[in-house]
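Researcher: Last one for today. Full complex below.
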Amino acid sequence: MNQPTVSSSPYAHNNQNVRKVMLQVQIAAFPALLAHIYLFGFGIVIQWMLALTTALAVEYFMLKLRGRPVLPFITDMSALITITGLVFCIPPDAPWWIVVTGSAFALIFGKHLYGGLGYNPFNPAMLGYAFLLISFPVQMTQWTMPVEFTQHTLDFMQSAQYIFTGHIPDVSLDMYTGATPLNEMRTGLSQGQPITDTLSKDMQTTLGGLNSWAWINLAFLLGGLWMLYSGVISWQYPIGFLGTLAIISFVFNQVDPELYPPMDVVLLTGGTMLAAFFIITDPVTASTTPKGKLIYAAGIAVLVYVIRNWGAFPDGIAFAILLMNIAVPLIDQYTQPRVFGHKR
Amino acid sequence: MNLLSSVIKLVAKFNPAAKRWMHSFNGGVFPKYNKSLSASQPIRKQIIPERLILPLQQQVGLTPEVKVQVGDKVKKNQLLAQPSKDPFKALSVPVHAPTSGTIVAIEPVTLPHPSGLQDQAIILEPDGQDESIDNVLGVDGSIPDSPLALKAILLNAGIVGMGGAGFPTYAKIPNQAGKIHTLLINGAECEPFITCDDLLMQTQAGDIIQGALITAEALGAERIICGIESNKPAAIKAMKQAASNTKVEIKVVETVYPMGGQKQLTLELTGVEMPHKAHAVDVGMLMMNVATYAAIYHAVKFGEPLTSRLVTVSGLGLKQPYNMNVMMGTPFSALAREASPKSELNYPLVMGGPMMGFKVANNDVPVIKTTNCILANPPEPVEMQMPCIRCGDCMDACPVNLLPQQMYWHSQAHEFDKVEKLNVFDCIECGCCSYVCPSHIPLVQYYRHAKSEIKEIHAEREAVELAKQRHEFRLARIEREKQEREARLKAKKEAVKKQTSKSSEATADTTKKPASAAAAAAKAAAAKRAAAKTKTSQSEGQETNKVPSARMKAIEAAKQAAQKSAAEKTASQPEESKPKQADTKSAAKQAAMMAAKKRAQAKAQKSEEPTDLTQKTAETDASKKEDARKSAMQAAKAAAKKRAEAAKTKNKETESLSPDAATEKPETDSSGDKRKAAMEAAKAAAKKRAAAKSQNSDKTEEQIKPVDTSAEQTETDTSVDKRKAAMEAARKRAAERKAKQQAEKQDSDEQQENPQ
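Model: Here's the assembly. Have a good evening.
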């Protein structure tokens, strides 16, 4: 691409650019990052740095391979958003090669092979996550236990040691890892234990009335609301997603509270808020028409609920998003807005 | 409402898009207006430049014709160029001298147009006296009582839409009073930097209001609404003051680009969303710019043509931006120099605002009637274009509710049919999408390109269709000619065969074929009568005189036979009255035929040729069965036809007499050896059909052919002399028919034109 000159109007611009948009998203993720560090330790920071290094290397080589200018595209920050989304989904103390292969897969197969930024049909972060979940299910489901169980988190060096070597001297690691609440509920149900029992047993230790998972979700909500307020993301995504999820979970919980978790648990566990504000709002892979955005978000919510309750995975956000990504062209086709002066 | 607006204002501090909830159309953007640069300055005194360049083409439409010569001394307001054609058919407006001086050249100059093309212009060297002709339009200052009277004044004053589009104002106004119920005044001026309308409203509010009142009076409009953006408080105050005690309503509208778009402002002011492809006039509304109304006022009250206008000279590259009442033809560079540029003007100036303006090809281009702003913004580093990330910001900003990113996607892939399906032609090219695009994609440029490509594709498709039709017609014609040639050859062979078998039976022909003989006789009689009655039929008479005596005898005999047969059927009427009677009979027939033909024509106009053709063939069949009386009648009809033509009456009767396939065929039957004539008739018919774009021309051709060949078979036996004479007559008739056909065609053309 040669240096373009504006040859026709408009000669004015609002000075927005792709980099700024991506940066705003990154900034909005900071509250969640801080909460994560507080609740789960420094594991995520190491993971994030590993992912960033991988991303930079992968971006450089892929851009070189594709014969594209490296500097403008490596600094467009889109890879940063991808790895941020991915890192939040990976257990904080998972082995180092998990995040490296996941990020590399996400960027190479999720983005560059389709033609780079703007051309990928699937959300790269979710593609990477799905790849990891299918390939390494054990490592991906062993989450670091939050601070309310462990009383103190691993420090930076301990985390690094654990991530790179797989063990920490003089520390019993069983204490630090376990299943996520969504996993617990699933296991409990399979053993004939009602949801209500699982919840009351496993989640009594709380922090200010809420457990760690809820706190992480609230941190995402905070960043998401800021993005909504500053106009970075469209309101249709979170409203459509959270609204639908809330309605479905409320209805099913009313039908059978023993089998279906209550609404607040559904909304504040797993990656619900992460998905609502950071993942499904990725414009490249989402529907773009106003109505289409709502349908897309609602579709993801339905699939998430279906996979969580009747599927084979504890959290179905990645698969739900990838499935709805496929449907995007169709949704866009049939939700075109009424053009000024035209009849419907 | 107040609570809502204050909440929105709070949100808008971080997210300017929130302000979009405040107005009625979708999207819109909130650029930096920079209006105070020039609005804070008083209007400067007019400058008289060294040269005025007056392009002939200043607006949409045709170029007017130059009325002056090089070396002529002209005064201010003098007419320099005038529309060459009827301006009510082809858009064109005159050009007047903005000041007194000498015409020094008429030469091509670069136009202030996006294309940067050159065109003829009158170069005027001002003498500095500024002598003017008062009331050059010769108005009496009274309000025109009809739209037409107003239109005439506006045309003569050379007024065009001064908001930017430059559509001749007279052409916007409907001819009938009462068609416009609401007159809209566009004082929105939503483009950044431009303040000329703002200052015009501040200084000439009365003129604008009066201009609107005059227009409303002439058009019979009941309401007048003026929309002004909220960022012009001084203009709003002045306009409200001027509009007090009049029926003009001043409405303050939100400050959002593109509020000044015609459809957007109409929706905002009246709540009416103009339908797709409809013009404002179609919904009973007419919107004009404030400057246009002021010009209307000056034209109607004082007879002043449009020779100057308020222009904003602004931009970040100028130290002292200003507004000035600038003479048309003043070069941009002269005006920019007056504003003391910060650096040398080595970058192109922009005509219009930054959102919809365009860079001029040459900074010496002149101010024209549509120049509202001259913008000097130094070039800024442009950010690199990134791939589209489908963020949808463009869609949220689009005031027409299009899907810009999808149109871009398809334009880029050259899938222009899909771009068209996404309604690219509704795009007003306001530039909002490009303005907000985080990837810095020049979206509007893509749509302009797509539009021109689509137009080209359509033109090409039409051309291909036409070529295909022509080719198919040519193939059909070649095939037909081939068949005709074969038929002719066959007929000749058969004739030779027959002649060898019954060589001496020529005299028996009359008894054998009473039809043809009788027809010939009747025709001869009719011709004689026609010769006696009219001048034009003299040639026919002469021809009969020329006929050799042998043939005359045969004709006489045939005549008698015909008279006999006619007498038998008409109960022995006097011989003299016989043709007349036939005439009356034929008149009845003609009436029926006329009706049939009219039906056919009506159907043909609806392009339902098949029925037309079947009707014709049916008539042909019927006519084949007719006997001698019929042919006699036909002959008489032919005579009557001639009479009618001589009289040159263009009434219905003439039209009914004009031949079509039905009337031709019996004649073909009746006359002597009229192979050639039949051929010609067939050809003429074919031509006619082709003109009507008949699709089954081949079919009818085949249907005609049997008639021809049978006629040939029956008539090859007649004597050579007779044949020749008959041929002569037939040729003549054919020529006449052709002439008549043409006349008829013209008639029908006129008829077709009239409804439109």
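The beta strands of chain A are 143-144, 177-178. The longest strand of chain A covers residues 143-144.
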